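step=predict obj=GLPGLI family protein n=260
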Amino acid sequence: MKTILKYIILFAVIFISSDLFAQNIHFIQNGVIEYEKRSNMYALIKKKINKDNESYLNEAFEQYKKNNPQFKVAKSTLNFTRDKSLYKWPTVEETVNNNWLASDVLADLKNTIATNFDLQNSVTQKSVYEDTYLVKDSVRKINWKITDETREIAGYECRRANAVIMDSVYVVAYYSNQIAVSGGPESFTGLPGMILGLALPHENVTWFATKVSEVTVPEKDLTAPTKGKPTDNKGLKAILLGAMKDWGEYAHPIFKAFSL
């Protein structure tokens, strides 16, 4: 009887301690997240070399590796509240690499995205070469598979989730439920917490949070972009496919990048 009573008391202490710990967890619902985007330029350039261009691209690639770092790095921010977010890039351009091999659609992608979590829609300002489009549509539906793997990002414990979008783009995300907003960088949302780490392993690009600041975000810092030719995702797809119909094998990676 004493043994049974001892275990009952032990379980009660554990339950009460766990409950008190859960009550003391602070959940963030508004703030600013700074992300660092890293594009593996060596891998991206290597993918562009084929039998038709290897005679000059191989030599150009070797020269590029001697004079340029492996990763192109860019900074972005996500302003968020419980029901809205605005993902954007700094107004001041980073140092430009004038080497023509450093130009890559995915590495240079700089979408501005306003998301309304309550209405489940978004407004994306997307630059496609010389044109700018304003894409208004519902948020991307992603079939996430949550795993048991965890890692720390910007001081937060995050859980891993995997998904496949656009039939072939493999996505790895790390989210923290301590930030109680279902948002993330670019168009990636839909997890039970904020995405602080994002990787497209086969596309050789990552976005990882470097700093999370819990601050009050004024409504003006969540304002959706307004400049651009209005369209939706279906309309943009038709525009892209029409423009690239004669591009052959070069079209597919560019289409994927502009569709993110």
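step=describe
The helical segments are 2-24, 41-47, 54-67, 233-243, 251-259.
step=end
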